[in-house]
């Protein structure tokens, strides 16, 4: 049964992404007139409050585009609807209240885009992880008030603001998955730096190798922990083509897989 669940999960990665994209697109476009064109589910039009936080705390520089510039890029590429999510490394600051406030500001900004530009934007809501109680409240707010299309999770999380040390299959997230499973939620994931693997090759940025690898670690974590099988109503979308998973699929799902 466990092997079957693993193979089914891996086999449906692409299909689930397509179904989630279509269902999410319908949710976004029903707020306004449907438009012909592509749907982009990886669109980092980030809230000004978050960009300000990153720059002021010297986390990273980010040339945040205006909404007008974002729409211009979308039109140029033939994109009808873009689902927004924040850039890394995430909003955990080490301070619970500050992180909750930042999550709310990011989500409210994305929701306003949906209101101001009907049909052009969708929302994958950010959570203030590793704060479980705050995340559960934000899930409720995102779905009930903002009418979010799904939830946004980084491939890893932890107590360190910049780097995570826990993956998506960690038992700590059980209350989150129980709620997301109940809501039949779409979860869009994006990699970030992990505490284990910083600057492994001097001169090579972590995004070059580690991002793809970290997505694969997250997928394996969901499988090996039993999370994917236990919460079958949660539909995952993995960015960057599933990382290195397509190239390791025979090992992950093979006869000797644990």
- Summarize the main sheet: 6 strands, parallel
Which residues sit in consecutive blocks of at least 5 with pLDDT less than 50? Answer: 14-26, 28-33
Estimate the strand proportion. 5-15%
Structural class: alpha/beta
Main sheet strand line-up:
1-2-3-4-7-8
Q: What is the typical, i.e. mean, pLDDT?
A: 85
Treating each run of at least 4 consecutive H or I residues as one helix, how many helices? 10
- The figure for the number of domains is 1
What's the CATH H-level homologous superfamily?
Metal-dependent hydrolases
Task: Spell out the helices and strands N to C.
Answer: HHEHHEHEHEEEHEHHEH
Q: Kindly provide the name of the CATH class.
A: Alpha Beta
* SS elements, strand count: 8
What is the CA-CA span between the terminal residues?
A: 13 Å
Overall helicity: 40-55%
Q: In the CATH scheme, what's the topology name? A: TIM Barrel
The CATH architecture classification is Alpha-Beta Barrel
Your description of this structure?
By secondary structure, this protein is of the alpha/beta class. The chain has one domain (2-252): Alpha-Beta Barrel (TIM Barrel), CATH 3.20.20. Helices cover 47% and strands 14% of the residues. The chain has helices spanning 2-11, 13-29, 48-56, 67-76, 96-116, 132-144, 174-182, 206-224, 227-230, 245-252; strands at 38-43, 79-84, 121-126, 150-154, 156-157, 166-167, 186-190, 235-238. The protein has a six-stranded parallel β-sheet, sandwiched between helices. A two-stranded antiparallel sheet has the order 5-6. It is globular.
């Amino acid at each position: 049964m466990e092997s079957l669940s693993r193979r089914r999960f891996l086999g449906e990665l692409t299909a689930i992404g397509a179904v989630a994209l279509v269902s999410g697109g319908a949710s976004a476009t029903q707020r306004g007139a449907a438009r012909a064109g592509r749907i982009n589910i990886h669109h980092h039009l980030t809230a000004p409050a978050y960009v300000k936080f990153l720059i002021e705390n010297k986390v990273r520089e980010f040339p945040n585009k205006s909404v007008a510039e974002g729409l211009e890029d979308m039109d140029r590429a033939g994109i009808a609807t873009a689902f927004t999510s924040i850039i890394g490394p995430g909003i955990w600051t080490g301070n619970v209240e500050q992180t909750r406030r930042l999550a709310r500001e990011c989500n409210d900004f994305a929701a306003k885009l949906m209101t101001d530009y009907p049909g052009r934007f969708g929302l994958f809501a950010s959570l203030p992880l590793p704060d479980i109680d705050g995340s559960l409240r934000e899930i409720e707010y995102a779905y009930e008030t903002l009418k979010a299309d799904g939830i946004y999770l980084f491939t890893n999380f932890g107590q360190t603001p910049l780097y995570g040390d826990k993956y998506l299959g960690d038992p700590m997230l059980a209350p989150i998955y129980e709620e997301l499973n109940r809501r039949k939620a779409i979860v869009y994931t994006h990699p970030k730096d992990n505490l284990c693997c910083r600057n492994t090759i001097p001169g090579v940025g972590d995004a070059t190798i580690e991002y793809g690898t970290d997505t694969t670690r997250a997928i394996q974590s969901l499988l090996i922990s039993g999370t994917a099988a236990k919460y079958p109503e949660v539909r995952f979308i993995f960015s960057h083509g599933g990382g290195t998973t397509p190239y390791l699929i025979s090992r992950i799902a093979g006869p000797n897989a644990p």
